[in-house]
Design goal:
There is one protein chain. With 417 residues, the protein is of the alpha/beta class. The chain has helices at residues 2-20, 24-32, 36-44, 57-64, 93-98, 126-133, 139-142, 144-160, 172-183, 199-202, 207-212, 242-253, 265-276, 303-311, 331-346, 374-383, 388-406; strands at residues 46-47, 68-70, 101-109, 166-168, 189-196, 215-219, 257-259, 285-289, 315-318, 355-357, 366-367. The protein folds into 2 domains: 1-43; 58-406, Alpha-Beta Barrel (TIM Barrel). It is built from 17 helices and 11 strands. Strands 2, 3, 4, 5, 6 and 7 form a 6-stranded parallel beta sheet that branches. Helix 1 (2-20) runs antiparallel to helix 2 (24-32) and helix 4 packs across helix 16 (374-383). The structure holds zinc ion.
Length: 417
């Protein structure tokens, strides 16, 4: 990343010059910009203390022989070498290997606001500050499409430099290829691409661009209400708009799965009723969430809405980030999973077939494990009393089956841009 090095040297030189000119505080602040990406990454992405003790052998064996899938992580938001083991953040290639992960979603967020009251003011946009402090190209300071393109390019470099250990999964054929390679003993990790929040679609990108560039999941909402619909964190938390309805129909036409994580309750209800009305044929995803029946947090989905997603053939991905869970420990993930399985069983479904996991790693959150800690999740699920066959489903078999059915047969041609 030569441009980054140039920007780092420029920040240090400018800071030194300001100190020399008699502006020591300002000079040090400017020089510290060159380390801003490390400081923000270290402060934002933390892990709760791990419980003492090893993962029991039976849990380790079950874990290694399972297809483990993570429905959500914001890995390429961060400027670090994702090929080597880092002491900051949650995900990198060595930790994916240690965690026995077979399929990792890499999700691209493009806007997050300090307060929804000032969502249009660029100073309220945390991505403005993040782009500035990590010395990214100036177009990413203000433009959501530029941020999406920047993260897409970073993912391309990560996959390209991995020597085949990372493989993009954009089609049923590529998913089958991943399974074949793993069955042959290769330590390859599949990567699927999602967009978190539709902000970039407001500002220049469109759905065909997403489809051509490999995005297979789109989260309708993130941290603020948009012209498509309301966010769980938004000011008005409204339902779907006419533009949002058009977006949902277009995503359906381009075989992009809709993710309802972060959506307001009214938006979730509106999308569910589009499904019930026959406008949506594809099942829905809630990639990373907690559940209100276990922990009443505004970010979590209600039991009623989770059940409606499951009835439509969808998946609920239980998250590892602390505010979504009743406690800051891995047993709380298992408790949430068991609550959903039981809720769905009692409603006459095969409950474990509609529950999955979506860590929210590297999402500027504190999580109960990092990517190397996945076997602890398996151990906690077994300890909570879930039978082995159902643990396998939740760990990733459901996600594999969901996308084996819902991905397009072949990848579209990838365009530059
Ligand atoms: Zn999120």
């Amino acid at each position: 990343m030569p441009m980054f090095r140039v920007a780092q040297v420029a920040a240090v030189a400018t800071g030194g010059w300001l100190v020399y000119c008699g502006w020591p505080v300002l000079g040090l602040c400017v020089a510290l910009l060159s380390l801003g990406h490390i400081l923000t990454d270290r402060l934002a992405n933390r892990v709760a203390p791990a419980p003492a003790g090893e993962v029991p052998g039976a849990a380790g064996d079950l874990h290694r022989s399972s297809f483990v899938a993570d429905l959500h992580a914001d890995v390429v938001l961060w400027r670090r070498d994702h090929l080597r083991r880092n002491r900051r953040g949650h995900v990198d290639l060595p930790r994916l290997g240690e965690g026995g992960v077979a399929l990792q979603f890499v999700t691209v967020p493009t806007k997050m606001v300090f307060t929804p009251r000032l969502q249009r003011l660029f100073l309220s946009d945390l991505f403005f500050w993040g782009s500035l402090f990590s010395l990214q190209r100036p177009d990413t300071w203000f433009s959501t499409p530029a941020r999406a393109r920047c993260q897409l390019a970073r993912l391309g470099r990560w996959v390209g430099r991995s020597g085949g250990r990372l493989q993009m999964v954009r089609s049923r054929g590529e998913l089958a290829e991943l399974e074949r390679r793993r069955a042959a003993g290769e330590e390859v990790v599949g990567v699927m691409l999602g967009l978190e929040g539709a902000h970039a679609l407001r500002a220049g990108l469109d759905v065909p661009w997403l489809a051509e560039n490999g995005f297979r999941v789109l989260g309708l909402a993130h941290f603020n209400d948009t012209r498509f619909g309301g966010s769980a964190h938004g000011l008005k938390k409204r339902g779907i708009t006419a533009t949002g309805r058009e977006l949902v129909r277009e995503l359906e036409r381009h075989a992009i799965t809709i993710d309802l994580a972060h959506a307001s309750p009214a938006l979730i209800d509106d999308v569910l009723s589009m499904g019930e009305g026959g406008e949506l044929r594809r099942p829905l995803l809630v990639s990373h969430t907690g559940v209100k029946g276990v922990h009443d947090h505004r970010r979590n989905i209600s039991d009623r809405q989770a059940l409606a997603v499951a009835r439509g053939g969808g998946l609920i991905g239980v998250s590892f980030f602390v505010p979504a869970l009743p406690r800051a420990e891995v047993g709380a993930v298992a408790e949430t999973v068991c609550h959903l399985v039981d809720l769905f069983d009692r409603a006459g479904l095969d409950g474990a077939r509609h529950v999955a996991l979506g860590s929210d790693f590297d999402g500027a959150v504190r999580t109960v494990v990092d990517a190397a800690g996945w076997p602890r999740v398996t151990a906690a699920l077994l300890e909570a009393g879930l039978p082995e066959g159902r643990v396998r489903l939740v760990l990733g078999e459901n996600v594999r089956r969901f996308f084996a059915k819902n991905l397009p047969a072949k990848s579209a041609k990838v365009t530059k841009g």
